[in-house]
Design goal:
The structure is a homotetramer of 194-residue chains. By secondary structure, chain A is mainly α. The first copy, chain A, has 9 helices and no strands. The radius of gyration of chain A is 18 Å and the shape is globular. Chains A and D meet through helix 1, helix 2 and helix 9 of A and helix 1, helix 3, helix 4 and helix 5 of D. Chains A, B, C, D: It is a multi-pass membrane protein.
Chain lengths: 194, 194, 194, 194
């Protein structure tokens, strides 16, 4: 299978995930500005999840730009990642409805951690199929990829005690990734597969 | 019509089906870990349906990689398949809401069987249009394609008595297909239409 | 703007319309086979609207295959068509919820008629931009395009008295279009823009 | 990253936004023509938001046709724009449910203004990356881009007193943009990046 098909399908799924989450944002019942306050937590968690899906989309494509063809194993590793990401609207909605209670925030963190692990598995599977070794060189020692699971785990543990602290960890990981990976980006610019 | 258009549209529909199903997963009412238990059957059937749509997407593209152009008959055979797949969120939701009762599980199985038949019809129609005979050779004797309808039928019959046994059959078919078809895959790698 | 962008966006919108309509199909409350009866009218109108969107997707692409570039006027004529088609889930849902009452069936017919007129306008705008005259030749005297609005109008008038007769007219138009337009198809096969 | 990937993802998100808004249109409870009146404000605001998303899609692609490759900064500026646009279904729904009350109309205007600012930021970021200067020349003095924020601000202020007048301003901006930008369009026709 050509990489472009896998990218197009993943694009579609990520575009839908990022957009349908807005359907979960609670519409205020009243019609005053103050009523918008009820939607605020919803809007903030929507923003956080929006950024996360955006990060995955970004990294996903940088990675696949260095690879020309994919096999069935890559395909299922990719669907595995999309599965965890497709649960983000669900875990976000539960966290919202509980007004950031402890258990739902832990579950949200577990969802993020599972997606990170799925992404790592996908990367390994792609590396194996990438004979030219472009991606391996491009990734270098992948510091962010190593720090993120640690921060997720700390966030999950913290959320047992204080959901707010847990979410602070999740926001930290997001910030870490928004800064584009110059190294991978410049490597891609030189060695893009097409 | 070029195959790429049909693939892009099918990609879109499958990406949406696979993603909107998560909107049907029931969000727990409470905010304890134990409340997540209410969503468990929902999550498991979501996973099963997610895998099914993933399998169809996978097979769909392997098949169309060997074909360059499609006519109106292929197009409608393809829409026929998409119609049955688009009902999967509906039959999954009914099965969930009934907590895996007998009738909804039977209907879910009938939906899977109808999609399998629609896929078979599509394959025959594509084979007819595929002058080069690439696909015919690639499919070989298509053992999985022949076993699946039998397993679906057994699952449907079993679900009349025990929904759990019925679902076990449907899981078995999914597992059968997750293992990628090396033969078709390697054939495609050599003879892809572009 | 290249035609491919307009096609990709239209593909996306049509894929979403065709798929989200299933969210409107009522999930049965009970868990017996007989409870599925409640969903039957929903499922049939879903099927009808699914076929209509499929027909528009089919014709849309056949038409644009003969055109290389589009301007702002074509773009807005296309969005105008997509607007009417995007209302189909709304008018279908109202017709369903009213159990095929007279007024909602009339409104459904008006929606179909408006989409047909929007398609005609789009066709004229594209013809104007199509210097090579390929599309004009391909369309020939476009008998179906001329009969359809008449049948829609008869269906709308009939629905005032009997919704069932009205719907019979709408089904008739759908059947008319499912049969692929061999003439246009063969012309496209010879003169496709790429 | 190639521009085509960014365009495909943005296409997907915009196609979904434009289509899921119809899910928010209230289906009439009764089954008489007069009951459709309840849906009228919903339908009109849907139309307005549909046109806005259409305008952004149109401008978005005209802009990116002149640019070949994009970096991480462009990517995040683009996601920033998509974030504000993805809130349009939410702010539209609140405005509807409040039957065009003052505060929700103001918030709708703020959403439109934020999207316009995000678009301006995106344009500046793209201009910076566009060495060839094609886009800068094509945009010229960008009169519409300068007038729109002023009209949005006036509309927001007016909506504090009269929501109807506020909406009149928002309709005016939409009309301003529906007229295609002949200058940019003809420039694009000559210098499109592919």
């Amino acid at each position: 299978m050509r990489t472009s098909r896998l990218e197009a399908f993943s694009d579609g799924v990520l575009a839908i995930i990022i957009t349908i989450m807005v359907l979960e944002v609670k519409i205020p019942h009243g019609e005053e500005f103050s009523d918008l306050g009820d939607s605020f937590p919803s809007l903030l968690t929507y923003l956080l999840s929006f950024i996360y899906i955006g990060i995955y989309w970004n990294n996903h494509h940088h990675q696949f730009q260095l690879v020309k063809r994919v096999d069935g194993v890559v395909l299922w590793a990719n669907l595995h990642l999309l599965f965890w990401l497709s649960l983000v609207p669900f875990t976000t909605a539960w966290m919202d409805e509980s007004s950031l209670a402890s258990a739902p925030t832990v579950v949200y963190g577990v969802n993020l951690l599972a997606a990170a692990i799925a992404y790592y598995v996908l990367q390994q599977v792609v590396l194996r199929a990438d004979d030219a070794g472009h991606l391996e060189l491009a990734l270098g020692n992948d510091l962010k990829g190593k720090i993120s699971p640690v921060l997720y785990t700390l966030g999950i543990l913290a959320a047992f005690v204080s959901p707010a602290v847990g979410i602070a960890f999740f926001v930290a990981v997001a910030l870490l990734w928004i800064v584009p990976d110059r190294r991978l980006e410049s490597y891609v610019a030189e060695h893009a597969a097409d």
